[in-house]
């Protein structure tokens, strides 16, 4: 190559070393679930003394090379320990996040991490080591609950958190009316369990504040998500019929009256007020805390109520653009923050229902 001659003297040739990229492939043993796969990643990161690590969901169709940079740069160059994703999503994608997980965790821990169960995170080697010391990998947390566990642990244990805007999240779509009962129960069960662990932290938090955001927001194209309102209302009505005695052990007569009124309405007129929904979520959290019945029954019986709020949300936002939808979700978040006092007052008070 050194003997090569060129006709164009303006061409500049350079030589540089090529460093090989190593790939580690390892089989997974033990209890199945995303959480135990993460445990393996934490172990590998620790063995390699990694400064930063990024993990992404396996069903993504919108990932770009920039995602990795946005997930690890805040760790490598800005001293952050945890980087949550921030996407533009279809208004009916991520309904568990929108209905419960984002507004609830925001009210509890006071940090506005918009996608706390997004599935795509960056974290420091120090935080990875911290995760590795926790004894959660033989529990339900190690399945659908691992994402919210990682986010909450980072916030509650004092690590420096931020979020990066990644653009669109396009993946295998989930109809909000489909059977998400198992996923909902495990995610919300983890949220409720972590409330008990971190009660000294969240009980001192009032209001919420934004976290540092990296990346530039831009408009993206999103794939539509079809929503079956009739199926969700039918599930709500069946829930009221079959689970009414269980709900009455956790919810006030006033709330039950509002649920009965909602169930009597036609699909297009179905409405469940935000204030009632927030009170329902807090009452379920308190029922879980005080073990008014088996915790599995508590979590499973939440599904029809969740579907009811989603139906109401869809009815109110069917013709809304992304900005209007975010304003509605912001109002829901503020309602969670306003009613937090109710949660605090009743946290150590045995239920009388």
Query: Residue share in helices?
Result: 40-55%
Q: From the alpha carbons, calculate the radius of gyration and give it in angstroms.
A: 23 Å
CATH topology description of the largest domain: Spore Coat Polysaccharide Biosynthesis Protein SpsA, Chain A
Largest sheet: 5 strands, mixed
Structural description of this entry:
The protein is an alpha/beta fold. The protein has 2 domains: 34-214, Spore Coat Polysaccharide Biosynthesis Protein SpsA, Chain A (Alpha-Beta Complex); 229-346, no CATH class. The chain has helices spanning 34-47, 65-78, 95-109, 125-132, 146-156, 181-197, 199-202, 229-248, 253-263, 274-290, 295-300, 303-317, 322-338, 340-346, and strands at 52-55, 82-88, 121-124, 161-168, 213-214. A 5-stranded mixed beta sheet has the order 1-3-2-4-5. Helix 3 packs parallel to helix 6, helix 5 (146-156) runs parallel beside helix 6 and helix 8 (229-248) packs across helix 12 (303-317). The radius of gyration is 23 Å and the shape is globular.
Produce a short descriptive summary.
Helices cover 50% and strands 7% of the residues.
Defining traits:
353 residues, single chain, 5-stranded mixed sheet, 14 helices, 2 domains, Spore Coat Polysaccharide Biosynthesis Protein SpsA, Chain A, alpha/beta
Architecture blueprint of SSEs:
Elements: H1 34-47, E1 52-55, H2 65-78, E2 82-88, H3 95-109, E3 121-124, H4 125-132, H5 146-156, E4 161-168, H6 181-197, H7 199-202, E5 213-214, H8 229-248, H9 253-263, H10 274-290, H11 295-300, H12 303-317, H13 322-338, H14 340-346
Parallel strand pairs: 2-4, 4-5
Antiparallel strand pairs: 1-3, 2-3
Helix pairs in contact: 1-4, 3-6, 3-13, 5-6, 8-9, 8-12, 10-14
